[in-house]
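All the exercises in this workshop are built on plain-text protein records. A learned vocabulary of local backbone shapes supplies the integers on the structure line. Once this layout is familiar, the rest of the handout is easier to follow. An example says more than a description, so a record of this kind follows:
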Amino acid sequence: MAEKVRQTLANHRRFDPLYHFFALPVTALTVILAIIHFVHRPNWFSGWLIVFTVAVVIIALRTRAYPLKAQDRIIRLEERERLVALLSEPLRSRVGELSEGQLIGLRFASDAEIPDLVREALAKQLSRADIKKLIKNWRADYFRV
């Protein structure tokens, strides 16, 4: 089995080639072609083809978004448990103040970095992206969908 590439801020986003580089472009192109077809041959079927292809695009997007949202909820739960175990008072009692985005960003931080990052995230209301940029010792997540 091939070794996994060390994950960093620069390469942590995942692309599913069949979804991102085939299914989405094909459905988007089909909407464009359906519109062109309607312009050249306006009739009820050409109109319906536009409606149908837009519905397929929506289905494709929602099919990806729903599991990502469920995964974000699981990450939120995991990170809250992790933070409660790693933090001491008064930070431990403030874990509930962290937003979903902040919790998701913190999942990449090493255990040693967590207290300082949580303190800074709460004080400055850092975004997920800002937190990720501050991480020095990246904790990889290879299971993201």
Remarks:
- Residues 17-134 form one domain.
